[in-house]
Amino acid sequence: MQKIHSSAELRARLASEKAVAFVPTMGNLHEGHIELVRIARQQGSCVVVSIFVNPLQFGPNEDFDKYPRTLEADCAKLQGLADVVFAPAVADMYPEQQTLFVEPPPIASELCGEFRPGHFRGMATVVLKLFNLVQPQVAIFGKKDYQQLAIIRQMVTQFNLPITIVGAETSRAEDGLALSSRNQYLSPQERTEAAFLSQILRGMGEALKSGAADYPALEREAGEALAKRGWQVEYVSVRRQNGLVRPERGERLLVVLAAARLGKTRLIDNIEVCL
Fold first, then answer.
1. CATH number at residue 128
2. Among 16-30, 52-66, 102-116, which stretch is predicted with the lowest mean pLDDT?
3. 119-134 and 7-14 are packed helices; what angle lies between their axes, rounded to 10 degrees?
4. pLDDT one-digit tens code per residue, 74-91
5. Do 49 and 139 share a domain, yes or no?
6. How far apart are alpha carbons 188 and 68 in whole angstroms?
7. CA torsion angle for 120, 123, 129, 130 (degrees, to 10)?
8. Whole-model pTM?
């Protein structure tokens, strides 16, 4: 496995590769990330993992400075799985002040975007830059960040990028909690409670499969159930899988998404529902 820090060195290393599978990350890797890399290994002969904490997608009151940087531990976890780890400095990714951005679709201002203004513009911009540098044939993204995945799919389609986007199923702990780098911020008591978020979403999924069609009522009841247990709810929403717009009655491919804070930790999760 080769660790590369500069764009020029990365381009030279990948110049002759014809089947690159790419996994972009912000590091602090957990088993969910490693599963994405295993999927990438099945998709290409050269697996590239980027580790870059992107300042553009953090708001002024978010945890950019505190976000864990664990490059050496991350590389140890990737041994035998990745061929190249690309870990650039901010100055390498942004050699001058970034004044050109990817303007994401309107959905970027809803759901997580309502509470993290500018996040998806920063995310889409850095992903496009990484795509330009890596030139992958396939890129793997987890479904846990469902809104991110939806926006990346639209970006690839609308910019005619020759990249196949693979959405990987969410990796979960035994109690159902979606794996996330931010789970480490939870206290032991909060960690036990955190599994309730996935339970709520599974309950909504079962209700939808049983014929429930009053989406606002389902959303309201789920939010109230979380709030009663001390969660600070940002949203619980039923959406169409394709494009994340609000569904009409009778649609069959839905996704239930939620974001809520438990103590100081913001958690997101979702569950796809096929009726």
1. 3.40.50.620
2. 52-66
3. 50
4. 999 999 999 999 999 999
5. yes
6. 19
7. -140
8. 0.96
